[in-house]
Design goal:
This protein has two domains: 152 residues, Urease, subunit C, domain 1; 250 residues, TIM Barrel (Alpha-Beta Barrel). The chain contains 15 helices and 18 strands. Strands 1, 2, 3, 4, 5, 14, 15, 16, 17 and 18 form a ten-stranded mixed β-sheet that branches. A five-stranded parallel β-sheet has the order 9-10-11-12-13. It has a three-stranded parallel β-sheet with strand order 6-7-8. The longest helix is centred in the middle third of the chain and has 16 residues.
Protein backbone atom coordinates (compact mmCIF):
# COMPACT_ATOMS: atom_id res chain seq x y z
CA UNK A 1 0.00 0.00 0.00
CA UNK A 2 1.34 3.43 -0.99
CA UNK A 3 3.07 5.63 1.59
CA UNK A 4 3.77 9.27 0.78
CA UNK A 5 3.50 12.84 1.98
CA UNK A 6 1.85 15.91 0.47
CA UNK A 7 3.33 19.15 1.73
CA UNK A 8 2.41 22.84 1.71
CA UNK A 9 -1.17 22.47 0.57
CA UNK A 10 -4.07 24.65 1.64
CA UNK A 11 -6.02 22.23 3.84
CA UNK A 12 -9.78 22.83 3.81
CA UNK A 13 -11.83 22.12 6.93
CA UNK A 14 -15.47 22.67 7.73
CA UNK A 15 -14.96 26.17 9.10
CA UNK A 16 -11.47 27.27 8.10
CA UNK A 17 -8.42 26.65 5.95
CA UNK A 18 -4.75 26.38 6.86
CA UNK A 19 -1.42 25.82 5.20
CA UNK A 20 -0.39 22.28 6.03
CA UNK A 21 0.93 18.87 5.12
CA UNK A 22 -0.20 15.29 5.60
CA UNK A 23 1.08 11.79 5.28
CA UNK A 24 -0.59 8.65 3.98
CA UNK A 25 0.08 5.23 5.48
CA UNK A 26 -2.04 2.08 5.46
CA UNK A 27 -4.75 4.01 3.65
CA UNK A 28 -5.13 6.57 6.46
CA UNK A 29 -4.20 10.21 6.98
CA UNK A 30 -1.33 10.71 9.41
CA UNK A 31 1.19 13.37 10.43
CA UNK A 32 3.58 13.96 7.54
CA UNK A 33 6.57 14.20 9.88
CA UNK A 34 6.27 10.50 10.73
CA UNK A 35 7.22 9.60 7.14
CA UNK A 36 10.47 11.53 6.54
CA UNK A 37 11.77 9.11 3.90
CA UNK A 38 8.53 8.58 1.99
CA UNK A 39 7.96 9.90 -1.54
CA UNK A 40 6.70 13.47 -1.36
CA UNK A 41 5.24 16.29 -3.41
CA UNK A 42 5.23 19.99 -2.54
CA UNK A 43 2.09 21.90 -3.53
CA UNK A 44 3.82 25.26 -2.94
CA UNK A 45 0.71 26.68 -1.27
CA UNK A 46 -1.13 27.02 -4.60
CA UNK A 47 -3.49 24.04 -4.43
CA UNK A 48 -6.47 23.35 -2.17
CA UNK A 49 -6.72 19.99 -0.44
CA UNK A 50 -10.26 18.76 0.31
CA UNK A 51 -11.74 15.50 1.50
CA UNK A 52 -12.83 13.63 -1.61
CA UNK A 53 -16.49 14.27 -2.38
CA UNK A 54 -19.46 12.01 -1.60
CA UNK A 55 -22.52 11.56 -3.83
CA UNK A 56 -25.45 10.30 -1.76
CA UNK A 57 -27.69 9.36 -4.68
CA UNK A 58 -26.98 7.87 -8.08
CA UNK A 59 -28.12 4.91 -10.16
CA UNK A 60 -24.92 3.44 -11.54
CA UNK A 61 -26.74 1.33 -14.13
CA UNK A 62 -28.36 4.44 -15.56
CA UNK A 63 -25.61 6.89 -16.44
CA UNK A 64 -25.94 7.61 -20.12
CA UNK A 65 -27.00 10.52 -22.30
CA UNK A 66 -29.14 12.21 -23.48
CA UNK A 67 -31.68 12.84 -20.77
CA UNK A 68 -35.10 11.26 -21.06
CA UNK A 69 -37.93 13.39 -19.74
CA UNK A 70 -41.44 14.70 -20.03
CA UNK A 71 -43.35 16.55 -22.67
CA UNK A 72 -42.82 19.99 -21.16
CA UNK A 73 -46.45 20.95 -21.59
CA UNK A 74 -47.10 18.36 -18.90
CA UNK A 75 -44.57 17.40 -16.24
CA UNK A 76 -44.77 14.11 -14.35
CA UNK A 77 -47.06 13.49 -11.39
CA UNK A 78 -44.60 10.96 -9.94
CA UNK A 79 -41.62 8.87 -11.02
CA UNK A 80 -43.57 5.98 -12.59
CA UNK A 81 -44.51 7.52 -15.97
CA UNK A 82 -40.89 8.65 -16.33
CA UNK A 83 -39.73 5.06 -15.85
CA UNK A 84 -42.12 3.97 -18.59
CA UNK A 85 -40.82 6.70 -20.90
CA UNK A 86 -37.22 5.69 -20.20
CA UNK A 87 -37.77 2.02 -20.99
CA UNK A 88 -39.49 2.98 -24.28
CA UNK A 89 -36.84 5.51 -25.35
CA UNK A 90 -34.24 5.30 -28.11
CA UNK A 91 -31.65 6.33 -25.56
CA UNK A 92 -32.40 3.29 -23.39
CA UNK A 93 -32.20 0.99 -26.40
CA UNK A 94 -28.89 2.55 -27.41
CA UNK A 95 -27.50 2.22 -23.90
CA UNK A 96 -28.48 -1.45 -23.80
CA UNK A 97 -26.74 -2.04 -27.12
CA UNK A 98 -23.58 -0.14 -26.24
CA UNK A 99 -23.02 -1.32 -22.67
CA UNK A 100 -23.40 -4.60 -20.87
CA UNK A 101 -23.95 -4.32 -17.13
CA UNK A 102 -20.26 -4.51 -16.25
CA UNK A 103 -19.28 -1.79 -18.72
CA UNK A 104 -22.23 0.34 -17.63
CA UNK A 105 -21.05 0.25 -14.05
CA UNK A 106 -17.49 1.01 -15.10
CA UNK A 107 -18.71 4.01 -17.09
CA UNK A 108 -20.50 5.25 -13.98
CA UNK A 109 -17.35 4.79 -11.93
CA UNK A 110 -15.60 7.19 -14.32
CA UNK A 111 -18.47 9.66 -14.13
CA UNK A 112 -17.95 9.49 -10.37
CA UNK A 113 -14.17 9.87 -10.10
CA UNK A 114 -13.91 12.50 -12.84
CA UNK A 115 -16.02 14.74 -10.59
CA UNK A 116 -13.80 14.36 -7.52
CA UNK A 117 -16.09 11.78 -5.91
CA UNK A 118 -14.80 8.53 -4.46
CA UNK A 119 -17.86 7.50 -2.38
CA UNK A 120 -21.30 7.03 -3.91
CA UNK A 121 -24.56 5.27 -3.18
CA UNK A 122 -25.86 3.16 -6.04
CA UNK A 123 -29.60 3.09 -5.42
CA UNK A 124 -30.28 -0.48 -6.46
CA UNK A 125 -30.96 -3.61 -4.41
CA UNK A 126 -28.06 -5.78 -3.28
CA UNK A 127 -29.19 -8.72 -5.42
CA UNK A 128 -28.57 -6.57 -8.52
CA UNK A 129 -25.31 -4.83 -7.58
CA UNK A 130 -23.77 -6.94 -4.80
CA UNK A 131 -21.27 -8.76 -7.02
CA UNK A 132 -20.19 -5.81 -9.14
CA UNK A 133 -19.74 -2.94 -6.66
CA UNK A 134 -16.54 -4.41 -5.10
CA UNK A 135 -14.92 -4.54 -8.56
CA UNK A 136 -15.19 -0.79 -9.18
CA UNK A 137 -12.25 1.59 -8.71
CA UNK A 138 -14.37 3.92 -6.57
CA UNK A 139 -16.24 3.17 -3.33
CA UNK A 140 -19.86 2.34 -4.09
CA UNK A 141 -21.09 1.67 -0.58
CA UNK A 142 -22.40 -1.81 0.20
CA UNK A 143 -23.57 -1.23 3.77
CA UNK A 144 -27.09 0.10 3.35
CA UNK A 145 -30.70 -1.00 3.67
CA UNK A 146 -33.04 -0.03 0.87
CA UNK A 147 -36.53 0.55 -0.40
CA UNK A 148 -37.11 1.79 -3.92
CA UNK A 149 -39.84 4.11 -2.70
CA UNK A 150 -42.27 3.97 0.19
CA UNK A 151 -45.41 3.54 -1.91
CA UNK A 152 -47.65 0.77 -3.20
CA UNK A 153 -46.31 1.20 -6.75
CA UNK A 154 -42.60 1.08 -6.01
CA UNK A 155 -40.30 -1.49 -7.61
CA UNK A 156 -40.12 -3.73 -4.51
CA UNK A 157 -36.39 -3.44 -4.02
CA UNK A 158 -35.15 -5.12 -0.88
CA UNK A 159 -37.49 -6.59 1.71
CA UNK A 160 -40.41 -5.10 3.53
CA UNK A 161 -39.84 -1.53 4.73
CA UNK A 162 -39.79 -2.57 8.37
CA UNK A 163 -37.43 -5.45 7.64
CA UNK A 164 -35.01 -3.19 5.79
CA UNK A 165 -35.19 -0.54 8.50
CA UNK A 166 -34.41 -3.18 11.15
CA UNK A 167 -31.36 -4.24 9.13
CA UNK A 168 -30.20 -0.61 9.11
CA UNK A 169 -30.67 -0.21 12.86
CA UNK A 170 -28.99 -3.52 13.68
CA UNK A 171 -25.91 -2.80 11.58
CA UNK A 172 -25.64 0.99 11.97
CA UNK A 173 -26.36 1.46 8.29
CA UNK A 174 -28.50 4.03 6.50
CA UNK A 175 -32.00 3.12 5.36
CA UNK A 176 -32.20 4.75 1.92
CA UNK A 177 -35.33 5.34 -0.11
CA UNK A 178 -36.83 7.70 -2.65
CA UNK A 179 -39.55 9.58 -0.82
CA UNK A 180 -42.33 11.86 -2.01
CA UNK A 181 -40.94 11.98 -5.55
CA UNK A 182 -44.16 13.41 -6.87
CA UNK A 183 -47.52 14.85 -5.92
CA UNK A 184 -49.95 11.94 -5.95
CA UNK A 185 -51.81 11.09 -2.74
CA UNK A 186 -49.31 8.46 -1.59
CA UNK A 187 -46.33 10.74 -2.13
CA UNK A 188 -48.00 13.49 -0.14
CA UNK A 189 -48.75 11.04 2.69
CA UNK A 190 -45.30 9.49 2.94
CA UNK A 191 -44.23 10.80 6.36
CA UNK A 192 -47.45 9.84 8.21
CA UNK A 193 -47.16 6.36 6.68
CA UNK A 194 -43.58 5.97 7.90
CA UNK A 195 -44.52 7.29 11.33
CA UNK A 196 -47.28 4.72 11.56
CA UNK A 197 -44.80 1.97 10.71
CA UNK A 198 -42.27 3.26 13.23
CA UNK A 199 -39.43 3.79 10.76
CA UNK A 200 -38.82 7.54 10.99
CA UNK A 201 -35.44 8.09 12.64
CA UNK A 202 -31.80 9.02 12.08
CA UNK A 203 -31.08 5.95 9.97
CA UNK A 204 -33.32 7.37 7.24
CA UNK A 205 -31.73 8.95 4.17
CA UNK A 206 -34.61 10.24 2.05
CA UNK A 207 -34.09 11.17 -1.59
CA UNK A 208 -36.05 13.98 -3.34
CA UNK A 209 -38.86 14.77 -0.83
CA UNK A 210 -40.50 17.29 -3.17
CA UNK A 211 -43.99 16.50 -1.86
CA UNK A 212 -43.29 17.02 1.85
CA UNK A 213 -45.26 19.63 3.79
CA UNK A 214 -43.87 22.06 6.35
CA UNK A 215 -45.16 19.76 9.11
CA UNK A 216 -43.44 16.78 7.46
CA UNK A 217 -40.15 18.69 7.37
CA UNK A 218 -40.35 19.47 11.08
CA UNK A 219 -41.06 15.82 11.86
CA UNK A 220 -38.04 14.77 9.79
CA UNK A 221 -35.84 17.28 11.61
CA UNK A 222 -37.01 16.04 15.01
CA UNK A 223 -36.27 12.44 13.98
CA UNK A 224 -32.74 13.19 12.72
CA UNK A 225 -33.47 12.33 9.10
CA UNK A 226 -30.97 13.07 6.30
CA UNK A 227 -31.96 14.42 2.87
CA UNK A 228 -30.36 13.84 -0.52
CA UNK A 229 -31.25 16.89 -2.62
CA UNK A 230 -31.28 16.24 -6.38
CA UNK A 231 -32.33 19.64 -7.70
CA UNK A 232 -31.44 19.14 -11.36
CA UNK A 233 -33.37 15.89 -11.65
CA UNK A 234 -36.37 17.32 -9.78
CA UNK A 235 -36.62 20.37 -12.02
CA UNK A 236 -36.20 18.31 -15.18
CA UNK A 237 -38.96 15.86 -14.24
CA UNK A 238 -41.34 17.96 -12.15
CA UNK A 239 -40.44 21.63 -12.72
CA UNK A 240 -40.01 22.02 -8.95
CA UNK A 241 -37.84 20.72 -6.14
CA UNK A 242 -38.13 20.26 -2.40
CA UNK A 243 -38.46 23.20 0.00
CA UNK A 244 -34.72 23.13 0.43
CA UNK A 245 -34.36 26.28 2.53
CA UNK A 246 -36.92 24.99 5.02
CA UNK A 247 -35.02 21.69 5.26
CA UNK A 248 -31.79 23.57 5.99
CA UNK A 249 -33.39 26.02 8.41
CA UNK A 250 -35.06 23.15 10.27
CA UNK A 251 -31.62 21.64 10.90
CA UNK A 252 -31.84 18.54 8.74
CA UNK A 253 -28.63 16.89 7.63
CA UNK A 254 -28.79 17.94 3.97
CA UNK A 255 -26.63 16.31 1.30
CA UNK A 256 -26.53 16.46 -2.50
CA UNK A 257 -27.09 13.67 -5.02
CA UNK A 258 -26.99 13.61 -8.79
CA UNK A 259 -29.55 10.94 -9.60
CA UNK A 260 -28.61 9.25 -12.87
CA UNK A 261 -27.58 11.37 -15.84
CA UNK A 262 -30.81 10.29 -17.57
CA UNK A 263 -32.46 13.05 -15.48
CA UNK A 264 -29.84 14.80 -13.33
CA UNK A 265 -26.70 16.85 -13.87
CA UNK A 266 -23.79 15.17 -15.62
CA UNK A 267 -21.81 14.82 -12.38
CA UNK A 268 -21.64 16.09 -8.82
CA UNK A 269 -19.57 19.19 -9.60
CA UNK A 270 -22.16 20.30 -12.15
CA UNK A 271 -25.00 19.39 -9.78
CA UNK A 272 -23.43 21.65 -7.15
CA UNK A 273 -23.38 24.58 -9.56
CA UNK A 274 -26.94 23.94 -10.73
CA UNK A 275 -28.32 23.60 -7.21
CA UNK A 276 -26.63 26.80 -6.10
CA UNK A 277 -28.24 28.73 -8.97
CA UNK A 278 -31.56 27.05 -8.29
CA UNK A 279 -31.41 28.16 -4.66
CA UNK A 280 -30.70 31.75 -5.77
CA UNK A 281 -33.65 31.64 -8.16
CA UNK A 282 -35.98 30.26 -5.50
CA UNK A 283 -35.01 32.48 -2.58
CA UNK A 284 -33.18 35.51 -3.95
CA UNK A 285 -30.11 34.80 -1.82
CA UNK A 286 -26.94 32.75 -2.03
CA UNK A 287 -26.51 29.33 -0.50
CA UNK A 288 -23.26 29.72 1.42
CA UNK A 289 -20.51 27.79 -0.39
CA UNK A 290 -19.19 26.50 2.93
CA UNK A 291 -22.62 24.90 3.48
CA UNK A 292 -22.44 23.28 0.05
CA UNK A 293 -18.98 21.96 0.95
CA UNK A 294 -20.48 20.33 4.06
CA UNK A 295 -23.30 18.82 2.02
CA UNK A 296 -20.88 16.86 -0.19
CA UNK A 297 -18.38 15.91 2.54
CA UNK A 298 -19.14 15.73 6.27
CA UNK A 299 -22.94 15.82 5.96
CA UNK A 300 -22.86 13.09 3.32
CA UNK A 301 -20.57 10.91 5.44
CA UNK A 302 -23.00 11.29 8.34
CA UNK A 303 -25.99 10.38 6.16
CA UNK A 304 -24.23 7.18 5.04
CA UNK A 305 -23.14 6.34 8.62
CA UNK A 306 -19.49 6.74 7.60
CA UNK A 307 -18.47 9.68 9.81
CA UNK A 308 -15.62 7.75 11.42
CA UNK A 309 -14.17 6.83 8.03
CA UNK A 310 -14.37 9.77 5.65
CA UNK A 311 -15.70 13.27 4.98
CA UNK A 312 -12.97 15.26 6.77
CA UNK A 313 -9.20 15.70 6.66
CA UNK A 314 -8.67 14.30 10.16
CA UNK A 315 -5.81 12.05 11.20
CA UNK A 316 -6.96 8.44 11.28
CA UNK A 317 -9.64 8.86 8.61
CA UNK A 318 -9.39 7.33 5.16
CA UNK A 319 -6.97 9.14 2.89
CA UNK A 320 -9.78 10.08 0.48
CA UNK A 321 -8.18 13.18 -1.01
CA UNK A 322 -9.23 15.71 -3.65
CA UNK A 323 -6.71 18.36 -4.73
CA UNK A 324 -7.95 21.28 -6.85
CA UNK A 325 -6.08 24.11 -8.45
CA UNK A 326 -6.65 27.33 -6.51
CA UNK A 327 -8.60 29.71 -8.74
CA UNK A 328 -10.36 31.63 -5.94
CA UNK A 329 -9.10 33.11 -2.71
CA UNK A 330 -12.03 31.49 -0.92
CA UNK A 331 -11.56 27.72 -0.73
CA UNK A 332 -15.29 26.98 -0.61
CA UNK A 333 -16.01 29.19 -3.61
CA UNK A 334 -13.15 27.40 -5.33
CA UNK A 335 -14.90 24.07 -4.85
CA UNK A 336 -18.42 25.09 -5.83
CA UNK A 337 -17.23 26.66 -9.09
CA UNK A 338 -14.84 23.82 -9.98
CA UNK A 339 -15.04 21.53 -13.00
CA UNK A 340 -13.38 18.23 -13.82
CA UNK A 341 -10.54 20.05 -15.55
CA UNK A 342 -9.59 21.73 -12.24
CA UNK A 343 -8.80 18.44 -10.50
CA UNK A 344 -5.09 17.88 -9.90
CA UNK A 345 -5.21 14.68 -7.85
CA UNK A 346 -7.73 12.22 -6.42
CA UNK A 347 -7.18 9.25 -4.12
CA UNK A 348 -9.21 6.66 -2.25
CA UNK A 349 -7.68 5.31 0.97
CA UNK A 350 -4.39 6.71 -0.27
CA UNK A 351 -4.51 4.90 -3.60
CA UNK A 352 -4.24 7.39 -6.46
CA UNK A 353 -7.12 7.20 -8.93
CA UNK A 354 -6.48 10.18 -11.17
CA UNK A 355 -3.94 12.96 -11.25
CA UNK A 356 -1.51 15.15 -13.09
CA UNK A 357 1.63 13.30 -14.10
CA UNK A 358 3.72 15.20 -11.54
CA UNK A 359 1.91 13.21 -8.84
CA UNK A 360 3.51 10.02 -10.18
CA UNK A 361 6.42 11.04 -7.94
CA UNK A 362 4.31 9.60 -5.12
CA UNK A 363 4.49 6.23 -6.90
CA UNK A 364 8.26 6.33 -7.46
CA UNK A 365 7.68 7.99 -10.81
CA UNK A 366 6.22 4.86 -12.37
CA UNK A 367 2.85 4.42 -14.02
CA UNK A 368 1.23 1.36 -12.41
CA UNK A 369 0.34 -1.50 -14.74
CA UNK A 370 -3.42 -0.96 -14.40
CA UNK A 371 -3.24 2.78 -15.24
CA UNK A 372 -3.29 4.69 -18.50
CA UNK A 373 -2.46 8.22 -19.60
CA UNK A 374 -4.93 10.85 -20.78
CA UNK A 375 -4.88 14.49 -21.81
CA UNK A 376 -7.52 16.46 -19.91
CA UNK A 377 -7.81 20.23 -20.21
CA UNK A 378 -4.41 20.36 -21.91
CA UNK A 379 -2.73 18.55 -19.01
CA UNK A 380 -1.01 15.17 -19.07
CA UNK A 381 -2.86 12.97 -16.58
CA UNK A 382 -2.83 9.39 -15.35
CA UNK A 383 -5.97 7.46 -14.46
CA UNK A 384 -6.83 4.04 -13.13
CA UNK A 385 -8.00 1.63 -15.82
CA UNK A 386 -8.64 2.67 -19.40
CA UNK A 387 -11.59 5.05 -19.85
CA UNK A 388 -10.31 5.96 -23.32
CA UNK A 389 -10.82 2.37 -24.49
CA UNK A 390 -14.28 2.34 -22.90
CA UNK A 391 -15.26 5.54 -24.71
CA UNK A 392 -13.97 4.13 -27.99
CA UNK A 393 -15.94 0.93 -27.39
CA UNK A 394 -19.16 2.95 -26.98
CA UNK A 395 -18.52 4.80 -30.23
CA UNK A 396 -17.90 1.56 -32.11
CA UNK A 397 -21.02 -0.02 -30.61
CA UNK A 398 -23.24 2.95 -31.48
CA UNK A 399 -21.52 3.53 -34.83
CA UNK A 400 -21.37 7.31 -34.41
CA UNK A 401 -19.41 9.95 -32.52
CA UNK A 402 -21.25 9.54 -29.23
CA UNK A 403 -20.60 12.34 -26.72
CA UNK A 404 -20.78 11.65 -22.99
CA UNK A 405 -20.25 14.94 -21.19
CA UNK A 406 -19.18 13.36 -17.91
CA UNK A 407 -16.02 12.03 -19.59
CA UNK A 408 -13.76 15.15 -19.70
CA UNK A 409 -11.77 14.21 -22.76
CA UNK A 410 -12.34 13.60 -26.45
CA UNK A 411 -11.07 10.20 -27.66
CA UNK A 412 -10.01 11.53 -31.05
CA UNK A 413 -7.72 14.11 -29.42
CA UNK A 414 -5.70 11.66 -27.33
CA UNK A 415 -2.10 11.17 -28.39
CA UNK A 416 -0.96 9.03 -25.48
Amino acid sequence: MAEYTVRNGIMVGLNSTRRGSFGVKDGKLINADTLPAAPSINLQGVSYVYPALINTHDHLRGNYLPRVGPNYSKYYLNWLPWDNDLKASRCYAERTKALDIDKGYLLSAYKTLFSGVVTVNDHFPHKLNGDILPTLPIRAIQNYAIAHECSSYDLKWGGDINEEHTIACTNNWPFITHLAEGFDDESMNAIPMLEERGVLDNHCLFVHCIGLSDEDIQKCAAAGVSLSWCGASNMFMFNTTCKIKKFIDAGLNVTIGTDSSHTGAINLLEEIKYDRELYRAMYGEDLNPSMIFRMVTANAAKALWMETQTGRLDAGKNADILILRAKHENAYENLVTASSTDIEFLSIEGRPLWGEERFLSLLDGKLPDNFTRLTVGGRKMFVIGDPLALYQHIRRATNFKKVLDFLPFEPDDQDC
